[in-house]
Amino acid sequence: MRVLGIESSCDETAAAVYDGSAGLLSNVVSSQVKVHAAYGGVVPELASREHLKSVVPVVEKALADAGSGRDAIDGIAATAGPGLIGSLLVGLCFAKSLSFAWEKPVCGVDHLESHVYAVFLESEVVFPYVALLVSGGHTSLFRVTGWEAMRFLGGTLDDAAGEAFDKAAKMMGVGYPGGVAIDRLSQGADPARYRFPRAWLSHDSADFSFSGLKTALRTFLASPEGAAAKVEDVAASFQEAIVDVLAGKALAAAKREGIPRLVLSGGVSANSRLRLLARERGAAEGVDVYLPSRSLCTDNAAMVALLGERRMSAGSRSGPELNAYAASRFTR
Ligand code: KG4
Ligand code: ZN
Fold first, then answer.
1. Residues 284-328: pLDDT tens digits?
2. In the predicted model, is pLDDT for residue 40 greater than 90?
């Protein structure tokens, strides 16, 4: 099947075409970073309006890049949730309208699932695997046993890791989006210069907590030592406290589950230090670590088109009742 995928769960309007035989044919992402930068975070109402402006040109470009007219498209997949409800509704309603106008089937897909299966765009991973999904809205671990089977192992009790990066960058005044800014500042800086707290919770816990770390950073920045500190070393030390826990807990979960395969997914998986630590520690512990390309870690529609293609090829279809949802369906 050849599927057009549409993603609009947060601040990226994206469309892609994935073909079950030929693979990924196009992958277009229109970022709203400039719109939200002035506010230091995503403003939901502005995000919805930007999606409205971008969705038609982005879909047109994805079709053109793929060399696909509507006749060559067998189905349409769109992110149904979780995410910002106004943003989701733009992409999802557009997909439903196209489905009606083109008389092609439509399939709603879950944003968390599309991140977790995005790895298949580049690698044939063997099931089962453990997935760390780490983004602006989520920090969770899953045991993935098949295309329809993902079991929640644990997740953050408070802030998501990406949210912690973004809020820290705002506190340090180093730019937006925060994760990217901190990653860049940390290059060549000393990650052991300051020791920020790590919340390991109990030794066998797959849960995370980053709100204490955020408070520790705020307290440090307000102290005389913090005022005199080199911002690059603060960024690198803060980043280290997050990625140390992410890599450590993800590998511990893989060991506990008895699965020697770990897949990283979500925007924070684009972090250079996390990628390095996960690869090095995985090699030392006998766990194969899969790292999708950075552009497939952050929000994109290639992962939506891929998952849509797999699901629709297996007969899955959504009806007219298909609607957007804000909250995650994967909970403890
Ligand atoms: O997956 P994503 O694009 O959107 C959500 O579903 O949330 O993830 C966005 C998050 C943001 O918090 C952003 O700061 C973070 O991913 N991020 C990074 C990096 N690139 C993006 N965090 C750390 N290092 C990066 N290089
Ligand atoms: Zn995402």
1. 999 999 999 999 999 999 999 999 999 999 999 999 999 999 999
2. no
Please, which residues bridge with residue 181 across strands?
A: none
Which residue's CA is the closest to the ligand 1 atom numbered 14? 179
pLDDT classification of 331: cutoffs 50, 70, 90:
confident
87 CB neighbour count, 10 Å cutoff = 29
The C-alpha torsion from 182 through 186 and 190 to 192, rounded to 10°, is 40
pLDDT interval class at 121 (50, 70, 90): very high
Task: Show the domains of the chain with their CATH numbers.
Answer: 2-116+299-313 (3.30.420.40), 125-291 (3.30.420.40)
Closest CA to 61 of 95, 96, 30: 30
Burial class (CB in 10 A: 0-12, 13-18, 19+), 163: buried
Q: Give the residue whose CA is nearest to atom 8 of ligand 1.
A: 267
Q: What is the pLDDT of residues 165-183, one digit of tens each?
A: 999 999 999 988 999 999 9
Whether the CB of 75 sits within 6 Å of ligand 1 = no
Q: Is the CB of 166 under 6 A from ligand 1?
A: yes
Our mutation pick for probing the ligand 1 site, out of 165, 176, 303, 328, counting the most ligand atoms within 8 A of Cβ, is 165
The DSSP string of 140-200 is: EEEEEEETTEEEEEEEBSS--HHHHHHHHHHHHT--SSHHHHHHHHHTTS-TTSS------
Distance (Å) from CA 164 to ligand 1 centroid:
10
Q: 155 CA to middle of ligand 2, Å? A: 15
β-pairing, 2-7 with 12-19?
A: antiparallel
Which tens digit of pLDDT belongs to each residue from 196-214? 999 999 889 999 999 999 9
